[in-house]
Amino acid sequence: SLLQPPETARDLGQLVWEKTGGNPFFIKEFLQALHDENLLQFDRQSRSWQWDLEAIKARDFTDNVVELMVQKLQQLPASSQEILSIAACLGAEFELTILTWIVEKSPQDIFASLKIALDLGLIYPLSELDENLLIQSYKFNHDRIQQGAYSLISDRQKEEFNLQIGRLLLANLDPPERMERIFEIVDRLNGGRVLITDKLERLELVKFNLSAGKKAKYATAYVAAKDYLKVGIEELTKVTEDPWTTQYELTFTLSKELGSIEYLNGNLDAAEEVLKYTLTRVTSALDKAEIYNLLIIQYTMMAKYSDAIETGRKALALFGIELPKTDLKNALLREVELVKPNLGDREIASLLDEPEIEIPEQRMVEEILVNIDLPTYFFDQELYSVVVVKMVNLSLTYGHIAESAKGYAAYGILLSSILRDYKSAYEFGRLAINLSDRFNSQSQKCSSCMCLAGHVNHWVKHIKYAKELFDDGYHFGLLSGELRYAGYALEHGSRYLFYQGLNLDKIIELIPKYLQFLQQTNNQWAVDGMLGFQLALLNLLGLTSSELDFHNENFNEVEYLESCRAHDSFAWLGTFNIFKSQILYLYGYFDIALEAALEAEKYLHFFLSQFQSSEHNFHYSLILAALYLEATEENKQKFWQQLETNQQQMKIWMDCCRENFEHKYLLISAEMARISGQDLEAMELYDRAIDSAREHEFIQNEALANELAAKFWLAKGKVQFANIYLKNARYSYEIWGAKRKVKDLEWLNI
């Protein structure tokens, strides 16, 4: 552009960049200023632009581009300056109509003042000329220009204009429009609130800040929500010396919302402090229970499960309900015995049409039980079962609230994990989703989708159908602010992609983004799960130092397991050992793999029908079969009994869902035939397992079945047969993305 070689223009270009931030509009303005000062001139003789860089640096050109634009703004006529300054109070975008409310001038006169700024490029139109040849909507060309216009007026004038604008917006907008533009209104009123003298007007300002805070929270703008709520509380103390006495409901709501939003902003200590103080001021059992509910949720997210459960006990005690601490099995039996008479002859699907609970106290009890189901699930499985069945009995007896959906979803988990009634479990899971739709509850839809996808769906449908449910769970969790289950949906969803056999490179790419969300939302349980999963993936991808090594850039296996124990994340102690047993089995470390499988056994009751239960069954059996021929006679007997037990359970699962479990059942059957000397049966079963895994798209298990068939034929001296299966195994492992396993196959060398 300057008709100079790049090396000549480089220093000027750097200076221009520093002065303008690279903004095209400001670059143009800055170069124009240089030209006006004769510091940048066109030399006709050399037919190029010339400049004196040192002279430019010596001149008093500000480092703040705003000041450069203010100089231009200050050259505008006084009427244009006034209009632009007021417009800057309105925000980056503004409307002619609102300016006419504020300035006692006609639209034509105001437009004439704005036209000058339009011509200079300081603002640009957002609408076309209307029938009166006026432009109604505008926007500042850059936020720095808006800042420049805003700086033309004094702080006192800013306060006056902000208050005037806020009042005019309130006066000229109907209630629906007020709520739609609540942020704009409240920002203006807050900007001039020091000038408010009337207590009733200040009280209205408090209520507007509460509304803005709630709306910002719903939009996940947590920092803004906190600011609105804090202003509301601050202004309320100017209305009355003791707001808890004179404005109880308003004060309670502000405090409750602030406690919630402090947590969502990651201010855990501040959140707990606000809520605990609120507990000292509330006057009713219902209000106290609301605060307890928030504390339960926060303690759960922080992995303080025992604190969450104890808080739940206190909340239920407000309504005369005592959760048992001992003899939980009998307590569960008593609750289970009530389900059938409470259900009567009603079909599960028909429960959708049952009436809504009308009694406030009964509604609150249901909400408390829903909130403590998670910490009991993580920390005390027996108590969890009691809580879930109690929720269902309350719903069957008194009717529904939105939270009843979670009770039915959790009951589906119990039906599948304890009673093995997978059909009814799925029906209750679908009922939960439909009930959340009936109540238009996005938070309950989030948790219901998570429960169905994570605990029930795979027993009756292909695991690939869980993805849509997990995605819905995450989506509705974000929309509703139900960040606990949104995080669980992310963790479970990514792990279930692994079980499905998705390419490992594609899965590992998701982990950093998912971890960031989980850490930002303080979802410790889900963080623990995701980190363990990441360690397994890194090993399979060959990104750890050896086959036996499980670590990432921040910690190793020992440190990870210690962290899980510190957080009472028992499910992840088991899940990690299932991954470990699977991976070490793939590399041929059968003895160490067995140790991991036996360690996982200790934590199976924490899975409650998650898919890894079947993964453990499958890989435990594979390990036992691999060790069988070299085992002592005593161990052979134990191993065979365990294999038969595992296969009995796998057969039940296969009969419910052939797509997910047939190939596993067939492959273990092939291995059992091999170690018992039934070669002809083994040959057929290997091929059937391969075909079933391929048909149902489990590429990782198709690879494994081919590998085991190759080893079978190699042991028989049939190298050519073995080579066919080995090539298929290597090809399938490559598709899966298990790079270290592909390399591991080289030892066969056939």
Task: Give a short overview.
By secondary structure, this protein is mostly helical. It contains 38 helices and 5 strands.
In words, what does this structure look like?
The chain is an all-alpha fold and 750 residues long. Among the domains are: 54 residues, no CATH class; 136 residues, Serine Threonine Protein Phosphatase 5, Tetratricopeptide repeat. Strands 3-5-4 form a 3-stranded antiparallel β-sheet. The protein is globular. The two termini are 66 Å apart. The mean pLDDT is 91.
Described by its quaternary structure, the protein is: single chain
| Average residue-wise pLDDT | 91
Spans of at least 5 consecutive residues whose pLDDT stays below 50 are none
Which fold does the CATH topology of the domain at 613-748 refer to?
Answer: Serine Threonine Protein Phosphatase 5, Tetratricopeptide repeat
- Helical coverage, percent range: over 70%
Q: Count every helix, treating DSSP H or I runs of 4 or more residues as helices.
A: 38
Level-1 CATH class name of the domain at 613-748:
Mainly Alpha
Q: Pairing-aware structural class of the strands and helices?
A: mainly alpha
Task: Report how far the terminal alpha carbons are from each other.
Answer: 66 Å
Strand order of the largest sheet: 3-5-4
Summarize the main sheet. Answer: 3 strands, antiparallel
Gross CATH architecture of the domain at 613-748: Alpha Horseshoe
What is the rounded Rg?
34 Å
Number of strands: 5
Fraction of residues in β-strands:
under 5%
Shape: globular
